[in-house]
Amino acid sequence: MHTRTYLTVRYAETDRMGIAHHSNYPIWYEAGRTDYIKSFGISYSDIENAGILFPVTNLSCHFERPAQYEDNIVVRTWAIELKAAHIQFTYTVKKINEDGSQTELGYGTTEHGILDSKTFRPVSLKKRMPELYEKIKATF
Amino acid sequence: MHTRTYLTVRYAETDRMGIAHHSNYPIWYEAGRTDYIKSFGISYSDIENAGILFPVTNLSCHFERPAQYEDNIVVRTWAIELKAAHIQFTYTVKKINEDGSQTELGYGTTEHGILDSKTFRPVSLKKRMPELYEKIKATF
Amino acid sequence: MHTRTYLTVRYAETDRMGIAHHSNYPIWYEAGRTDYIKSFGISYSDIENAGILFPVTNLSCHFERPAQYEDNIVVRTWAIELKAAHIQFTYTVKKINEDGSQTELGYGTTEHGILDSKTFRPVSLKKRMPELYEKIKATF
Amino acid sequence: MHTRTYLTVRYAETDRMGIAHHSNYPIWYEAGRTDYIKSFGISYSDIENAGILFPVTNLSCHFERPAQYEDNIVVRTWAIELKAAHIQFTYTVKKINEDGSQTELGYGTTEHGILDSKTFRPVSLKKRMPELYEKIKATF
Question: To 10 degrees, the CA torsion angle through D57, D61, D66, D69?
């Protein structure tokens, strides 16, 4: 189970090498995460409004081929691990070519703590948001 | 009375035209504002912690010459207007050449409301932070 | 004649005030410009590949209301002036509410030189790209 | 042998969680890399002008503690591997506290191909820039 997020490379995202700067990929992953969470019928804004944060603790990106201005990109997102106060996501980033075929540009992972937004201490998603917890668990 | 903020153009700030993307200038102005406020013995963090926000209501930028990766830049910042719940800043952006001379790259202005961070309603800086208000007023 | 560009506010675009940082609006305008140019059957990439650049010489933004994470945004873009080596665009930025109504967040303009990408000297769009020139002129 | 790069967290770098967004760390690493290369008496601009690019192929970041607006940050950078057409860097990011002590915020690595800027094919840094190659090698 995964979601697909579509975006177009912005001019401001390019650098003087003529390609999308690598610092944009974590931002694209995050757009993917936003859509992934939404697919469970809750928004990440709702999660934060309920007093829970998912700060990133680890990030890894592998870059296979560059993306360029105006390229149409699809980010595929899915969760690969969910523990009490820890969640991990994987992403693939592909370019959609004019003929509809796709070229893999790279992939990455993010690991997140699950924290209370007031105390910044770990909280159990299972206890605080059991429905969301079970829905994500069911995707494994 | 103005402050000078020094920065080096980052690779990620360039675009495929090979120059610093224009969206970075408001960020550089903001770095200038941070230093300008600090010159009065208070940080902008302190102002926000005291429950006051300075959201931007108007921004204008004029670009004369481009900046490039690794260019050494100086942003000069000063306030040009301060009313009860409104403040306006001006900025110049110059490149510092290797021989120490400077080349003007452009200039800009920002206008800000002065709001209570809880109600998002205008507040009087004169009443809430009279000392800072008088110090800025004294620069005109 | 104008184009509409749809985007969702990204988490990375927010700041500690909880709203989309004002430096994102020029980037959103640029996404609008990309779609506007495309509506004439040519991409801005094609224009650059033909050796022509549209660097920004002036930028102005007015901010009426803030945008927040996950807000659905529509940017409306149109050209308001086209001379030999100069083009000007206007933008409105609106939030699309859940009931489908729209709330105006602000508006802005950008002015651009039209330059040869090798010499960085002004060029006549009318001479270099007469078809595009006439198509834009026809919108006034 | 390593270099130290000093920066102050910008307002635009914060997100609605109130901390520096994780996508800024690769940009800070890059500022560190810029200074590291410069310490060998050549700028990264010079390397690119000589027709060589160092595109990122892998990025990893570990986040231990968050950085906040106006925090003074020091990025320590050093190379840990150099092969013919491949180079790898490590970074630590620390906050400089008011008493001068430092708090570790996290660390990361980047791996880069070494490519010809025209053909985008791997090139040997040892052959193309033997002096720089030997200087970096000498740090291991």
Answer: -20
